[in-house]
């Protein structure tokens, strides 16, 4: 279980994350929503070690990860994908996967053998199949479509076999149809892999349809948490967020 | 942007590509290395030209140095402007050990490498945390520090006169390095072994870790790679090969001069990499041969050597924006059919 306890982070006078406490149950699928600047990405950056929290705890199965470096946190089992696909442009899809498995198996510093290592193949193959990248294995990452680059980014996190997978806007920059395909994929991964998935999403239709649990952030604080129905009817949420943006944007 | 095997034609070959490559390529590299060594070793028997053998020895010294620089620049994306300090360290270290202790050559060789490893670890642990331009400048600063130390500590290093009086070379294992042909064979062997070792580094899992760091160091951290440690490791490894190049040079000129540790050596290394191209493993070797040929012909024709070299640099940097080997690779890829695979 991933437990966040009193997590806070300020930039100058701005409290980007303000005393956030929440438990992500094992195997849960949670959407994090909130208006622009609500501190969603900061929240992810704190959990993954990209930012050091000012105070608070990040407990993964009881072990506090607050203040540790990204590589350490990744090795503890928290993987992440980025809002803008963060990949290795000159490597092919297959090389990317094989090299990531190497890193996961603590073989990133092996000098006396040739890449790729036989023991990394199965895992790389598995994840490429899972994300539908297998037939693009020899494509250089930079030449992939936007959607495939996002998938490759997720594959990079997934290949490490994380306990918790954080997806920062998996549908960012996608057209309406592609969005649904992508989020369908995310939900499928969650169902098949039995891991804890937390994702940030702007599209309310997607959130209400896909996520069994929703966390609403606003000005760095948790405004509300609950099921889609509870959130939909929460007056504070409607006022702060849905009342202004959603009424016009979605039907 | 790296290495030869990124053929666009690979799309058609599908999955087995990786399989066959991994089975064959280590042996293929060894085979190529042995063939090249055999040809180089046969050269003295075929040609009596001392100048030709000298040329190969110089190529060995500079080629080892430039290829090791490419491990940093091309594979890891660390642009070092001070890599020449390890070339100088190799030349001075080996020369001093031989002059002062007279220990057997292989032992002095190992001792110089060990010393360089220690120095590179210290300098590297300060430099590799720095980003691009700061890394470049601080490595340059350390180079100047070592150069000034050599100049001012004249009782030990000979100052601006360099390490003179020749380097003693006791015979070991029947090899007499004061014999020109013996020196030539040993230099060729060091070149071939050094290249083979660097090729192994480039094609190992660690080599791919380096490529990931070059492409996107932040992402590499988020898949659990200790980027700092990887950078330090390759910094020290590259220093060892540069040091080997310096030792070959010291043996060739039978001494060591402050120029070997001056920043222009680093500049020459960068220039060689630009000439040959950093996207292929052999680019720097091609660049070395080009530069030395250019050097020898131009100095014979005109005293304005610098102007000609400057124009060539500008031509490659601004006009072509690529090294020679990059063109060869593109040309081969195009002949195999299909457009370039790298966008």
Structure description:
The complex is a heterodimer of chains A (251) and B (343). Chain A is built from 9 helices and 10 strands. Chain A has a 6-stranded mixed sheet with strand order 6-7-8-3-9-10, sandwiched between helices. Chain A has a 4-stranded antiparallel sheet with strand order 2-1-4-5, covered by helices on one side. In chain A, strand 4 and strand 5 form a beta hairpin. The C terminus of chain A is likely disordered. Chain B has 343 residues and is mainly α. Chain B has a single domain, classed as Orthogonal Bundle (ABC transporter involved in vitamin B12 uptake, BtuC). Chain B contains 14 helices and no strands. In chain B, helix 4 runs antiparallel to helix 5, helix 4 runs parallel beside helix 6 and helix 8 packs across helix 9. The relative contact order of chain B is 0.18. Classes of the chains: A alpha/beta (251), B mainly alpha (343). Chains A and B meet through helix 2 and helix 3 of A and helix 1, helix 2, helix 8, helix 9 and helix 10 of B.
């Amino acid at each position: 279980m991933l437990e966040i306890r009193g997590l806070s982070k300020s930039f100058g006078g701005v409290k980007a994350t303000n005393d956030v406490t929440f438990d992500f149950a094992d195997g849960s699928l949670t959407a994090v929503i909130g208006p622009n600047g609500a501190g969603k990405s900061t929240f992810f950056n704190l959990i993954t070690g990209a930012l050091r929290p000012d105070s608070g705890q990040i407990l993964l199965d009881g072990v506090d990860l607050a203040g540790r470096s990204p590589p350490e946190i990744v090795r503890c089992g928290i993987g992440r994908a980025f809002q803008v696909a963060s990949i290795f442009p000159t490597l092919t899809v297959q090389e990317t996967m094989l090299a990531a498995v190497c890193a996961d198996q603590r073989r990133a510093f092996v000098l006396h053998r040739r890449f790729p290592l036989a023991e990394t193949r199965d895992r790389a193959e598995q994840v490429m199949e899972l994300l539908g990248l297998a037939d693009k294995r020899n494509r250089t990452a930079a030449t992939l479509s936007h959607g495939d680059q996002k998938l490759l980014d997720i594959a990079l996190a997934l290949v490490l076999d994380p306990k918790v997978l954080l997806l920062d806007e998996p549908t960012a920059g996608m057209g309406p149809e592609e969005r649904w395909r992508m989020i369908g994929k995310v939900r499928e991964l969650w169902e098949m892999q039995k891991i804890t998935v937390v994702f940030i999403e702007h599209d309310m239709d997607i959130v209400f349809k896909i996520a069994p649990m929703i966390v609403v952030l606003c000005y760095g604080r948790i405004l509300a948490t609950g099921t889609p129905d509870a959130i939909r009817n929460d007056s504070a949420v409607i006022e702060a967020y849905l009342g202004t943006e959603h009424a016009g944007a979605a039907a | 942007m790296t290495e030869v095997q990124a053929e666009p034609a690979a799309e058609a070959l599908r999955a087995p590509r990786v399989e066959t490559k991994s089975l064959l390529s280590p042996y293929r590299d060894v085979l190529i290395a042995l063939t090249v060594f055999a040809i180089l070793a046969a050269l003295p028997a075929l040609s009596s030209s001392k100048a030709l053998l000298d040329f190969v020895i110089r190529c060995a010294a500079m080629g080892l140095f430039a290829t090791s620089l490419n491990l940093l620049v091309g594979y890891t994306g660390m642009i070092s402007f001070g890599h020449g300090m390890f070339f100088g360290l190799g030349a001075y270290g080996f020369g001093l050990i031989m002059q002062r202790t007279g220990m057997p050559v292989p032992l002095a060789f190992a001792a110089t490498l060990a010393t360089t490893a220690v120095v590179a670890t210290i300098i590297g642990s300060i430099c590799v945390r720095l980003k691009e331009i700061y890394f470049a400048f601080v490595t340059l600063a350390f180079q100047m520090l070592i150069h000034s130390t050599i100049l001012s500590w004249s009782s030990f290093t000979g100052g601006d006169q360099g390490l003179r009086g020749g380097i003693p070379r006791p015979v070991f294992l029947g090899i007499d390095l004061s014999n020109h042909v013996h020196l030539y064979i040993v230099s060729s062997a060091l070149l071939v072994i050094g290249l083979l070792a660097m090729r192994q580094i480039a094609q190992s899992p660690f080599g791919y870790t380096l490529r990931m760091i070059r492409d996107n160091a932040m992402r590499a951290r988020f898949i659990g790679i200790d980027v700092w440690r990887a950078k330090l490791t390759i910094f020290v490894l590259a220093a060892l090969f540069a040091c080997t190049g310096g030792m070959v040079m010291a043996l060739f000129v039978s001494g060591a001069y402050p120029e070997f540790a001056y920043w222009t050596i680093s500049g020459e290394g960068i220039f060689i990499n630009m000439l040959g191209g950093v996207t292929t493993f052999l680019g720097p070797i091609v660049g070395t041969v080009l530069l030395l040929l250019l050097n020898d012909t131009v100095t014979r024709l005109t005293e304005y050597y610098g102007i000609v070299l400057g124009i060539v640099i500008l031509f490659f940097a601004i006009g072509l924006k690529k090294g020679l080997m990059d063109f060869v690779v593109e040309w081969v890829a195009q002949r195999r059919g299909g457009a370039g695979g790298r966008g």
